[in-house]
Amino acid sequence: MGRPMLWLACRHHILKVVLKDVFVRCLGPSSSDILLFKRFQKKCAIIDQGSFLSISDENNPPTSDYWANQASSMKEYLQQTLSHGTHPREDYHELLVLSYRFLGGQVQGGFRQPGAYQNARWMAKAIYALKMFMFRHQLDLTAREEGGLRRLRLFISLAYVKQWNEAMVSNRAPLNDLEFLHLPEAYPDKEVSHTTSTALKRHLWYFSEDLVGLGFFDDRIPKDTKLKIV
Q: What is the C-alpha to C-alpha distance for residues 210 and 225, in angstroms, rounded to an integer?
């Protein structure tokens, strides 16, 4: 093309790697979660969709300031994002809606029937995990399965969904990358935070200083910070 080009690696790839590792940490090898999803898929026809559990229905809800602050912040983000109504695919929209519902948001309509859950479709696995936890009182889950899903739904709805939804927005990459790199420092579930940190450290080449200039087009970054970059 005769012009210098900026190499902006696909953020979806690193996010898939992170979610894969967190799934294994919480539920064991992928064969285990696929069997779990099959059981859920078979039972979907008799599930009462009007009876689902949100974060406020927890018997032992997370109590740290991090959980409360993140839940409030993410609920506001999801509400604004859904109100704009622009999403690249239906499954993106479904993941946003499920996360918003889980955090106590009100959305019209029911739940979509579960789709494919191949190893390659990590967003589908995130969708399955949220649905199963929200309908856990109607499922025959073991204590280990419910515990694993509990850890997953917090990670997905409070830390992951925003990163995934904005992975294709290039001007948000620098700040989102920085926030995700710092996530393990604050995340209360230390096993999940360590798993996330380890996955990110294997892919640090994604986070290039060449991308800093994209931050000038990010309206979340204050003007005085942008002046310091210059």
A: 17
Nearest-5° angle of CA 211, CA 190, CA 197?
25
CA proximity to 173, closest of 206, 126, 199: 206
Distance CA 74, CA 68 (A): 10
Radius of gyration of the chain (CA): 18
> What is the reported pTM?
0.87
Q: How far apart, in whole angstroms, are the C-alpha atoms of residue 158 and residue 68? A: 10
Take residue 79 and report the two structure tokens written for it: 């509400």
> For residues 70 and 73, what is the distance between their CA atoms, to the nearest angstrom?
5
Give CA–CA dist 29/160, Å, rounded.
Answer: 20
Reported as a single tens digit per residue, the pLDDT across 212-223 is 888 899 999 999
